[in-house]
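Example 3.
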Amino acid sequence: MYIPTFQDMLDAHERIKPHIRRTPIRTSAYLNELTGAQLFFKCENFQEPGAFKVRGASNAVFGLDDDQAKNGVATHSSGNHASCLSYAASLRGIPCNVVMPRTAPQAKKDTVRRYGGKITECEPSTSSREETFAKIQSETGGDFVHPYNDPRVIAGQGTCARELMEQTDGLDIVVAPIGGGGMVSGTCLTLSNQAPETQIIAAEPEQADDAYRSFKAGHIIADDAPKTIADGLLVPLKDLTWHFVSNHVTDILTASEEEIIDAMKLGWKHLRIVMEASSSVPLATILKNKDRFAGKRVGIIITGGNVDLDLLPWLQ
Amino acid sequence: MYIPTFQDMLDAHERIKPHIRRTPIRTSAYLNELTGAQLFFKCENFQEPGAFKVRGASNAVFGLDDDQAKNGVATHSSGNHASCLSYAASLRGIPCNVVMPRTAPQAKKDTVRRYGGKITECEPSTSSREETFAKIQSETGGDFVHPYNDPRVIAGQGTCARELMEQTDGLDIVVAPIGGGGMVSGTCLTLSNQAPETQIIAAEPEQADDAYRSFKAGHIIADDAPKTIADGLLVPLKDLTWHFVSNHVTDILTASEEEIIDAMKLGWKHLRIVMEASSSVPLATILKNKDRFAGKRVGIIITGGNVDLDLLPWLQ
């Protein structure tokens, strides 16, 4: 298992800069007042394909040598990694095959296809996903870019925390949602090296709290097919992300479905950005644990904004 | 009638800088491809009270001498000017009285009250609004800050185009929605002085096309109580805004209700920002008149983002 280094993250940033956006920070006097904290929202939903995952995907795609690149890339993903890898592959002009649960939101499937990615559907469980993928990968010979358990991907995701720190002049706490742990691992990689005093808090849905239980137990616990509105956070930790989570995360906080939906609507209303349910888990946990964040400078990573606008959760 | 000058706009910018945000520019490769133009969206929906009108309102409020300020400010407004004036007044700690149509969206009323503004409701017509306002103003003695027909307000709105030009390195065309014409007049004030080669196009709902008909006729035509989903654009031109519109606007383009709603949803989906129907009229007119914009660098002012999230127009 190769553990990506701080230098890998710096190299990734140089490699991907031409292909990603340096996304802006949003602030809201209203949300600061509501939480008692000073909140800095890093808008990764403003990446062209609508999610931070374009960072890790671009680092993998543009790091391939020409021979490897011929067969393209392949992956399995609950959504945003698939569209972001398709997008990065389209920028380089190479094929991208993705295995995706048939239950993934239509908006996410559309995005993958718009970027030229080829989708093979599987059942919405980790086991079905991995089985289907093995078949696709052997057929195409594409380079496997795991959505999170890949040092290239983690180094890429770490560039987000680097920008966030530059844009805010330092933070007491960074909160990011946790599914497989790619963004959280990248954040750990960057902050443990350049700002070890900054706390890293992972935010997870109660209904998919495998990372929380893993963190408390001291070993990986994986659930098959959890169900939550935060559909980007369904997947379990793997060895590489567990390394970062177990060594560098300060705490994992959870929120209920209702709390996530309330936070989502609050973000749309006061930040005036379209953010996914998955991206709303950090704000939900901050609202639930105000004492912990009061008076602190808190960075929050808005991980994505690919939402089916015909199926808003507060209107269902 | 005092016509604000370029220097008034520069002075306004210095005066209001501590109180407003220098809002970011959003771009979308997808929307560029769809329109054939290079689009730069200036996100005034990211101002703290959610609309560009905080610029003109702050310029008026912070330009008052201490004696004038004691009685506060007063205005009538279909929504965003009211909340922005209340916000600016709250920053200075002075009273704000607003007359607002009873049919204004609940979200806008809530925002006014949150900032300490006192609302008096009127019927949704220009005549009722002006009558109710005269009563309120004589009772309170507040300084009347008209939503658009005020040189201080127009000078303030002009600061938006100034930032837009700085942030984009110049543009061929700037498109802004037109209601009473405050933003368009401010844009004319700034661009006619510093970038006279840049075209200024005003975008208006077909169902409230009084500015379009005025522009073609060569004199102000005012409708009483037009109806459109773009509820920020219901009011007619007045002498001061007519001065700017008639002298400096290149053209006025219109869009249907359906085209406005489609553009609104498209903006939410691909820019991942919450923008009002009123703010979506420019994109609707660009999509409808692609030949006119193809190959051009086009600035679009996203004027506001105060939306009732329980009443989205594409779900009604």
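The mean pLDDT of chain A is 95. The two ends of chain A are 44 Å apart (CA to CA).
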